[in-house]
Amino acid sequence: MKKQIYFFWMLLAVLFTSCGRKTVNIVKEEFEDGSPKVVRQYEIRGKDSILLRETIFYQNGQKYIEGKYTNNQRDSIWTAWLPDGKIWSQGGYKEGLEDGPKKVFYTNGSLFYEGEHKMGKRIGVWKFYDSVGNLIQSIDYSSIISSDTLPH
Prior knowledge:
Layout: H1 2-18, E1 21-30, E2 36-45, E3 48-57, E4 63-70, E5 73-81, E6 87-94, E7 97-105, E8 111-118, E9 121-129, E10 135-140
Antiparallel strand pairs: 1-2, 2-3, 3-4, 4-5, 5-6, 6-7, 7-8, 8-9, 9-10
């Protein structure tokens, strides 16, 4: 009898926590052949839908761009791929603005450049490389005066 009561309460807890909430993928845009171009994932809470994630595809079906949303703004790590499936770039977002480390790669997989953003602005030292991995330039954005910091 105790097992039945326990099972009943567990079932009730699962139903209560999942009631009114589900995750759905919606194709927002298609290619001419009907294959998905833009797919968004939403959490449905009663009458409300909350955007969680977006995936954009190349016509060949490979992922092009993917990342998460918070409050309808890009958030967390976003990744972009080349048509052959190799990573093209990765960078963070916070409140819809680039924020955190960013890396961009050549088609051969070598690092093209790397740096960091803070609330949409480049900060610190950004490094740029040639296609075989040799450092060719460094730019220190902390020493560059932004027009935002100039007196009016």
